[in-house]
């Protein structure tokens, strides 16, 4: 049996997202998976990372988010809500982040989950840091062996987010999450599941969306992963961490970090 952690952010259970969340949980459980749920609004998740997250720190010293996080992670003195989420992450074979696209990104409460749960020593600051090896990240790190997927509802049309769409391509908009938050600590990322033009969802569309999403969930472990380049795999020069000049010569932008 595999464990799937569903990190979910919507303030209203009777929303489209609420209905999709219930559908996902039932589908995953029917397939024999154990679902670990982090329903962030229902948990009243504290989204701001601050000194209260590290109750054992010396209050006389200036608060240093990275160093205090590292020390508390190593010494087991992080606040209990953070430690509980890290334990879910440790158990999870796959993590699904489900959210409505708000201002081109995840809702603030979910960003706050990432900021607080991704402690120094767990999600960053892992491995050797030297002029030869710039940490275990982008393809290496604590989440190696786990899969991750985004399930995102989007008010706009698919064409608004196409290659020439006014909002910019959806792959670019999701790049900071896919590459910077998931691939960075070592997750294998599969293609996002996107629900477009949410204002037009009715009973019929909802059934179609559930059918498509259900197929994605049924094949969670068979789907190809995004082929991001590994930082320490030889494609980048270290320590300047730029793509080697003979790879994708003359090109720049997010796309160069995908292996062709
Ligand atoms: P709801 O509003 O709950 O539902 C959408 C539709 O689905 C409704 O018609 C509802 O009747 C129907 N529905 C709900 N449940 C069911 C069910 N069980 N069966 C059948 N039909 C159902 N959009 C963008 O494209 N880009 C942005 O940057 C962006 N930023 C935003 C920022 C904010 C702060 C907000 C509030 C919205 C933003 N939006 C943006 C729009 C946003 O992405 C959508 O409002 C959201 O994805 C819709 O999801 P929901 O769960 O809130 O849907």
UniProtKB/TrEMBL annotation:
Keywords of this entry: Oxidoreductase
Any one GO CC term of the record: cytosol
A Pfam family assignment: Flavodoxin_2
SUPFAM superfamilies to which the protein is assigned, alphabetical: Flavoproteins
GO molecular function terms listed in the Swiss-Prot or TrEMBL record: NAD(P)H dehydrogenase (quinone) activity
Taxonomy, superkingdom: Bacteria
All copies of domain Flavodoxin-like fold, residue ranges: 3-216
Signal peptide: none
Entry similarity comment: Belongs to the NAD(P)H dehydrogenase (quinone) family.
Full protein name: NAD(P)H-dependent oxidoreductase
Source species: Jejubacter calystegiae
């Amino acid at each position: 049996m595999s464990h799937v952690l569903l990190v979910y952010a919507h303030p209203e259970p009777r929303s489209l997202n609420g209905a999709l969340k219930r559908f996902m949980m039932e589908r995953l459980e029917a397939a024999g998976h154990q679902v670990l749920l982090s329903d962030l609004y229902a948990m009243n998740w504290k989204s701001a990372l601050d000194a209260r997250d590290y109750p054992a720190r010396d209050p006389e010293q200036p608060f240093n988010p990275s160093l205090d996080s590292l020390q508390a992670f190593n010494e087991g003195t992080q606040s209990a809500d953070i430690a509980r989420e890290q334990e879910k992450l440790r158990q999870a074979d796959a993590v699904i982040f489900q959210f409505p696209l708000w201002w081109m990104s995840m809702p603030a409460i979910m960003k706050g989950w990432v900021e607080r749960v991704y402690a120094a020593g767990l999600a960053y600051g892992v491995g050797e840091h030297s002029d030869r090896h710039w940490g275990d990240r982008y393809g290496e790190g604590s989440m190696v062996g786990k899969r991750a997927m985004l399930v995102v509802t989007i008010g706009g049309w698919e064409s608004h987010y196409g290659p020439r769409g006014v909002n910019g391509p959806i792959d670019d908009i999701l790049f900071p999450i896919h590459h910077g938050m998931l691939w960075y600590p070592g997750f294998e990322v599969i293609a996002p599941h996107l629900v477009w033009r949410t204002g037009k969802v009715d009973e019929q569309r909802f059934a179609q969306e559930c059918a498509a999403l259900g197929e994605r969930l049924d094949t969670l472990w068979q789907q190809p992963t995004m082929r991001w380049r590994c930082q320490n795999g030889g494609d980048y020069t270290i320590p300047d961490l730029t793509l080697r000049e003979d790879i994708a010569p003359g090109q720049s932008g997010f796309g160069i970090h995908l292996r062709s």
